[in-house]
From TrEMBL:
UniProt domain SET: residue ranges: 42-120
Pfam short name (any one): SET
Coiled-coil spans in chain: none
Record protein name field: SET domain-containing protein
SUPFAM superfamilies (UniProt xref): SET domain (SSF82199)
Amino acid sequence: MPSEYNKEDNIADATAAKAAYKPTHPGLFEVVHAEGSFNSQLVACKDFKKGEIICDIQGTTPGPKKYTTVQVSKDLHIELNSDLVYLNHSCDPTVSFDTDKMQVIAHVDIKKGGPLTFFYPSSEWEMDQPFPCWCGAEKCCKSIQGAKFLPTEVMDRYFVCSHIRDLLKERDAQQA
């Protein structure tokens, strides 16, 4: 995996982006580049069964909190340095991002070509760049700001990383 991975956020020519693209996990998943800002997505290159480990998370580097990092403890963020940076958010996610085991796990059965998405607040306490959610899920949260801003009852619907569970317990104890 590359030691430094640059995510293209605004693609003017999807055909050129696809031609230049070199997947970091060939055979598992790939980026589908789409023109515009933040329109690309990660899709499965094969079928995955619910509970199957899609990949180990390797080659990461610590970094300051920003929209391309993932929170892995109460105070540490990492750069993924791979195509995993294109995992989009969904309130009805297809994968779990387990920062304790450093694995991406199929949350549901995923068909080849299906999108790989995860619930961002499952690992993020407070998002660097909050955004309105348009995922269309039946129980969409509407605004993705991080776990800090969601009731524990909502978070209980999802796989949630242990550092977020700890922060939720601390928050709830302070509010009691």
